[in-house]
Amino acid sequence: MQSDKKIKEKYKIKITQKTKDMEIEIHQKMQLWTTEQVNEYALKLAISPSDNSNCSLENSFLARTNPDSRFVHLVAESDYLEDLKYGWDFALRHFIEEYKSLKQQQNI
């Protein structure tokens, strides 16, 4: 079993760009959104805090469990982006599994 420190390091991604004399940090996060009924899920990437707004939200989802659903609630965020190399659908399925597992553990 991995230690808490290793897990935290694994899920933290930080991209730093230098411009002239200042340093800009860009934190990318994967977001899990759900429907009003909490029965369908969608994956979105957030690059900055302003990406959390609901402006043109429907066009910003990269993968969905149901393309006809309306996603209205942000239920989880993660800095762990490694799953993206296997495709959007894989990342969404894995994120849903992790979310449900953590939610179940919290209810015990």
Number of strands: 6
Q: Please, what is the oligomeric state?
A: single chain
What's the order of the H and E elements? HEEEEEEH
Compute the number of structural domains.
1
- How many H/I helices? 2
Rg of Cα set: 15 Å
Task: Name the poorly predicted regions.
Answer: 1-25
Q: In which range does the helix fraction lie? A: 25-40%
The proportion of strand residues reads: 25-35%
Rounded to the nearest angstrom, the distance between the terminal CA atoms is 21 Å
Mean pLDDT: 75
* Shape designation: globular
Strand order of the largest sheet: 5-4-3-6
Query: What structural class do the secondary elements suggest?
Result: alpha+beta
Largest sheet: 4 strands, antiparallel
Can you describe this structure?
The chain has 108 residues and is α+β, with helices and mostly antiparallel strands. The protein has one domain. 25% of the residues lie in helices and 28% in strands. The chain is built from two helices and six strands, in the order αββββββα. The protein has a four-stranded antiparallel sheet, with helices on one face. The chain has a two-stranded antiparallel ribbon with strand order 1-2. A hairpin with a 2-residue loop joins strand 1 and strand 2 (22-26). Mean pLDDT is 75; it is low at 1-25.
